[in-house]
Amino acid sequence: MKKGVMRPGHVQIRVLDMDEAVKHYKDLLGLIEMDRDDQGRVYLKGWTEVDKFSVVLREADEPGMDFMGFKCLDEDVLGQLRSELLERGCEVEDIPEGELKDCGRRIRFIAPTGHAFELYATKKQTGKWGVGNHNPEAWPRGLEGIKATRFDHCLLYGPNLDETLDLFRDVLGFDLAEQVIAPDGKRVAQFLTVSTKAHDIAFIHHEEPGKFHHASFFLETWQDVLKAADLLSMTDTSIDIGPTRHGLTHGQTIYFFDPSGNRNEVFAGGDYHYPDHEPVTWDAEELGKAIFYHDRVLNERFLTVLT
Amino acid sequence: MEESYQVTEQCSGQTFRCKAGQSILKAMEQQGLKCVPVGCRGGGCGFCKITVLNGDFECGKMSRVHVPPEAIEQGEVLACRIYPLSNLIIECRPQPAGRLASEHTTTKVLR
Hints:
The complex is a heterodimer.
Chain A: E1 5-15, H1 18-28, E2 32-36, E3 42-45, E4 55-59, E5 64-72, H2 75-87, E6 92-95, E7 106-110, E8 116-120, E9 150-158, H3 161-171, E10 175-181, E11 187-193, E12 201-205, E13 211-218, H4 222-234, E14 239-245, E15 252-257, E16 263-268, E17 280-283, H5 287-291, H6 300-304
Parallel strand pairs in A: 1-4, 5-8, 9-12, 10-17, 13-16
Antiparallel strand pairs in A: 1-5, 2-3, 3-4, 6-7, 7-8, 9-13, 10-11, 11-12, 14-15, 15-16
Chain B: E1 4-9, E2 15-19, H1 24-30, E3 49-54, E4 57-59, H2 69-73, E5 76-78, E6 82-84, E7 88-91, H3 99-110
Parallel strand pairs in B: 1-7
Antiparallel strand pairs in B: 1-2, 3-5, 3-7, 4-6
């Protein structure tokens, strides 16, 4: 049942070198730099996003994800969800308005997988970059590189998938869209949606908590994915795998790494999910095909290389 | 001719040339060798951890979790972020127990 959580709104990613990272996310991935703050964080977004920013880069000694935020319908919903998280026994941290520039108060909690998530309802809306919402043209001129259209989802690695699914489903209103089940019946991967997208957040079982697998960005077409691959080669950027298709969600994809070793994905297409749909299930024996539909073989690096 | 150095990986006995300014992981990959595991290639994941037994090198930025400052002193570094200043002898040991071992357990579960 929907609880008023709308969509993935932002992700804060740690990078080892800010200049190199900005070059990657702005010039290569094609995000728009929107702002910087006095902590040195850089705020970016995909050109189709209406809110001011969706990716925040923070320079640190260790790469990975600081937190991922979901935007809620309004402040009343936010207050309600805060109460429900507390009732559930979650520790909740209140982050004041303005800690992220032009973002309202945020409610932070740690999921059983060890990852920090946030809910918020207010963020400055600057409109779609370069086109706005009044007689908008199809796309703006002046986009760079891969021209990523929006931040779409994250895949995170950690333990306690069952408890995490319960929390996201019961308190936050997500649905289980796809899953991978091991022969012993244990769910080892879960793709959750709070919209009709195939995934808004995904988790894969891993003993070590709080690990970051990738942040993903949406492209319109397979041709765009191919051109992304061209640009990755032109810039000698570290590619993980692709271009290929996933079995899970059936998206067309390529994976690569930012200069600090954080994995990124750009993808096109993919399935859709409505709340009355049964989850799609893959058997763990078919995991090779589930992850890489054409190779049908697991790439060890995809499963084990994390930040 | 462009300056290059010889890198020898002691466990496999494999040897390859690495240009000045090039990371030794990249040189290894370009020559089709696999004596060091390849991860993110960005100093972040710790997959290509090696010990430099002999020789001089420069370091790029590496995740502090995988390479704390005291480890650099011991020559424990990431192959994707070191650039030789002389011939190097390196060692890529099998991955230690603990964290990486648990990752491998996870992989088996997924299979």
